[in-house]
Structure formats: structure tokens, C-alpha cells
Specification:
Blueprint lengths: L5 E6 L3 H11 L5 E7 L3 H9 L4 E2 L2 H5 L6 E4 L6 H10 L3 E5 L6 H14 L3 E4 L6 H13 L3 E11 L10 H4 L1 H4 L1 H5 L1 H12 L4 E9 L10 E8 L4 E9 L3 E8 L3 E5 L2 E7 L13 E7 L6 H15 L7 H5 L1 H14 L9
Parallel strand pairs: 1-2, 1-4, 2-3, 4-5, 5-6, 7-10
Antiparallel strand pairs: 7-11, 8-9, 9-10, 11-12, 12-13, 13-14
Helix pairs in contact: 4-5
Length: 343
């Protein structure tokens, strides 16, 4: 079903938003970019040179005629305020992750959005990609009850000790550090696979490559969820990146690695194995080529806004994950296991 393009405004025009969002959205028929807001002059002029209407006045931005939705891509610490302002204007919100830097701000965003009746989405792209969807479906088909998920990732960038200077490691007050800035991706994927956003206990370790590094670069967490499943999540920065998701189920295992889903289930008894062990059947399935991730999100967001039904990562769904993130940060600070607090 074809939908009329959604008229969107973009808040933030720094390097990431310009190169990873806006310039890709120019050829996406699902959206029409009607304006850009950036407080600083240089990014604003860049937006104008790219052919967009741009302003450094947030009041002028929110008064752009016909604007129906906004995409928020400014510093992580500003997401909550911009989102609530958009909700009060009745505009739909696509918010770059992290949604907020604590569960209190996430709750405020959720309350304002639901009061306004708008469509909301937190931009974790991973769950909407072909590879993740294939892993989820195949594992649900063959693995039975999920007992454990391991989600391991490292972003190719380099460590502080190697001379790398990731801006979100360098500015933890604005970014929330790596636990909030990027680990939230991995947590979201685990919550979707396990079908719950509620944990009973967490243990978290944050590491720096050298004492002078402003914030954590490597994070490792063990989480016990309310449905009995456990998860190990490892994320961070390295000079050579990777991603590996493993699901251990009651009747089989599934793994996503190197753009391939591997399914493993028990085979018949084999007398050459150790007594009591099982042989295996294994199936390796290559993942088909992905479409542009931001096009996928833009199409789904427009469909949700036009249809009035939100099947994306709504503020309500994501907000409870920030209770887990809050508990993880407390665990790292105290060195103890922590129970997340839910209302």
C-alpha cells in the first residue's frame, strides 16, 4: 500500500546525522524533509548548501508549515527535551538512540507521547534488518524455549590507548558513556529475542583502555530476566569489529555470525560419541543482501504514522530497558549485582 510521503524535520546536522540519515533519506520516497534545525552556524550552513531549509531558531523550526514529524539526532542528553516539545506540538517522533540517559527522562518522554497520541520510534536498526529477523524466526522455529542469549559486539573504531577519540567516549556527560550510547543496541536486541524488558538481577563491568580515558570503552553484563532466561552481553570499541549473536534453546541452538545463520539441533544416537551425548544436524543459511537500513526505518515509520498503528520500537517498549541500563551503571559503580527497580 502506497502512503503519502511524511513531511519531516530533522533536529541536528552534525556529521553522523548528515551522512547516515539525511543524505540517504533524500532518495527515499516515504519521507520529505521540510527543514533542518542546528544551533551551530557551520552545520546549519552545510544544510543550506545541501539544498535544505535550515534554521538556528528552534521556535522557527517547530513552526515550519506542514511538518508532521521530527527526527532527533542531537547530543544524547538533549533527546528528552526535544521529544517532549515535539509531543506537545502533536508531532510524531523518530528518536536516535539512546532514547534518554536515565529511566526518569525516558518515562517523561513516554508520558508526553502517549498524552499526545503520537507515533514514536527509538532508532535501534538491528531488529529490523534481514539478518536479525531471519535469526529470530529460525530460532523460534527450532530452538524451543530460549534459555540463554549471548550478544557480543565491538565497533571498529579503536581504543583511547591506541589514539582513537570517539566523541561519545570523550564526552560522557552528553553521551552517557558507552553503556548508554551503544550498549543499549545490544540490550534492545536481547529484549526482543527474549520477549521481555524486565530483569530480576544484573551484574555489569565497565573497562577503560587507560586511566586517562574519560569513560568506559568495553562493557560486559550478565542479566537474569523475569522469564528465567539469562543473557551475556559484551560491547565496546576495538581496532577490529565483530558481531555475534548466539541463542541456546531447550531443543536447539542458533547463531548469527559473518552474515550467516547457523541452526543446530540434536541428531540420532551415535555410538562413537561420549556416552550420553548427542550427534547433531546443522544447517547454515546465508543472509540475503540488506536494503538501506535508514530506508527500511523511514518506510516503517511513515506506514505507522499514516496507519495509526505503531509496531516499531515505541517509547513505551524501550523505556523499561532504561531501568536495566540504570541498574547496570549502578552495578559497575558498586561492583555488586543489582536488582532493577520497576513501578
Amino acid at each position: 500500500m502506497a502512503y503519502k510521503p511524511l513531511k519531516v524535520g530533522v533536529i541536528g546536522y552534525a556529521h553522523y546525522m548528515r551522512t547516515n540519515f539525511v543524505l540517504h533519506l533524500r532518495d527515499c520516497p516515504a519521507v520529505e524533509i521540510v527543514g533542518i534545525y542546528n544551533r551551530s552556524e557551520e552545520p546549519r550552513k552545510m544544510a543550506e548548501n545541501d539544498g535544505f531549509y535550515a534554521t538556528s531558531s528552534i521556535d522557527d523550526f517547530f513552526n515550519i508549515k506542514g511538518m508532521e514529524a521530527i527526527i532527533i539526532g542531537t547530543a544524547n542528553s538533549t533527546h528528552s527535551d526535544f521529544s517532549q516539545r515535539a509531543a506537545r506540538k502533536g508531532m510524531h517522533v523518530l528518536c536516535e538512540k539512546p532514547m534518554a540517559l536515565n529511566s526518569a527522562d525516558a518515562d517523561k518522554m513516554t508520558v508526553e507521547a502517549e498524552k499526545a497520541g503520537i507515533i514514536t520510534h527509538v532508532n535501534h536498526m538491528g531488529p529490523f534488518m534481514t539478518s536479525f529477523q531471519m535469526l529470530k524466526k529460525k530460532s523460534e522455529d527450532c530452538c524451543g524455549k530460549f534459555l540463554h542469549v549471548a550478544n557480543r559486539s565491538s565497533r571498529t573504531f579503536g581504543l583511547w590507548s591506541q589514539g582513537a577519540r570517539h566523541q561519545n567516549v570523550a564526552n560522557p556527560e552528553a553521551s552517557g558513556g558507552w553503556t548508554y550510547h551503544h550498549f543499549c543496541h545490544m540490550l534492545d536486541e536481547v529484549c526482543i529475542l527474549l520477549g521481555t524488558t524486565r530483569a530480576t538481577k544484573v551484574y555489569h563491568i565497565e573497562q577503560k583502555s587507560c586511566p586517562e580515558c574519560p569513560s568506559e570503552e568495553i562493557v560486559n553484563a550478565l542479566i537474569h530476566f523475569d522469564n528465567g532466561a539469562t543473557a551475556f552481553i559484551s560491547d565496546g570499541l576495538s581496532i577490529g569489529g565483530y558481531q555475534d549473536i548466539f541463542i541456546q534453546g531447550a531443543t536447539g541452538d542458533a547463531r548469527l555470525h559473518n552474515n550467516e545463520v547457523t541452526l543446530t539441533i540434536p541428531g540420532p544416537y551415535d555410538r562413537f560419541l561420549r556416552p550420553g551425548s548427542k550427534s547433531i544436524f546443522q544447517n547454515k543459511i546465508p543472509v540475503v543482501a540488506e536494503t538501506k537500513p535508514i530506508h527500511t526505518i523511514a518506510n516503517l515509520f511513515t506506514q505507522a504514522c499514516r496507519g495509526g498503528k505503531n509496531e516499531l520500537l515505541s517509547f513505551r517498549f524501550v523505556a523499561d530497558q532504561y531501568r536495566i541500563l540504570d541498574a547496570l551503571r549502578k552495578s559497575a559503580q558498586t561492583g555488586q549485582a543489582v536488582e532493577p527497580k520497576y513501578d
